[in-house]
Amino acid sequence: MKRTLVVLTISTFFIFYACKKTEKDVTVVDTELSEPEKLMVDSVSVSDSITLSDSLKLKFNSKMLVFPTITDEKLLDSIYFQNKNINDFSKNGLKSLAEKNKNNYFNNAKKDSEDWLSDIKFSQQWYTDTSMKLKGTLNDYLHIQYFWNTYEGGAHDNYSFTERVFDLKNNKKLELKDITSMPEKKIGELLKKNIDKMNSGTTDENGTVKNSEMLLVDVIPANNSFYFDDKNLYFHYSPYEIAAFAAGDIVIPISWEELKGSLNPEFKKRMKIQ
């Protein structure tokens, strides 16, 4: 059977969903964080399904955040990085984009399924689900979590998370170099040391399984999926990125104290880090 539906998902963010873990809800703001005074946030959602045959149903879900008060196009392009060539960032424009993505998904699936649809012998529902979640704002830094989940048959679905932080004062996506000058090798050592500080929630017949017991790599790289609060810098890894699928997604914290001496002075001042 041709495995083409993942390619058909219009907002692919990266990879995979884990067993024995609940999907992260698309709730809104972290109550410990405060929004910038003039920041306005809205959202649009599109959900639909079609039946391709007696044995296969397709479902599409998409939720996109809308920021009416953000006007910088470069910043908006970065916020909606998973969709290329957007010309209208208004609520109606993003709603139209989601509808277009839905129609493309269904139309391409209908066309491609002609070669393999008859091979499906039992009832299934395949789906694609993409969403943006506002995690909060802190000192004019905007944190958005992007979620992607899809199922196209097989033993399990696939999913990934991407964390992005945006600097609303300077109208740009925050890069790791804007936070710390610590060499990647040293950051990797801290990530390896802290791997078990936040358990992924994975269990087996003997109880909780440590993240370190499921690692697939000897060196944990600092990825671009990071965020922070007033205590730590966090790196978020999707399944298979550094660990076995059963580990699910893993979050590793590095404290500001551990990064002491390498923090960007402007960032340190803005975050009031002692």
TrEMBL record:
PROSITE patterns: PROKAR_LIPOPROTEIN. Residues 183-257 form the DUF3298 domain. InterPro entries: DUF3298, PdaC/RsiV-like_sf. Transmembrane segments: none annotated. This is DUF3298 domain-containing protein. It comes from Chryseobacterium fistulae.
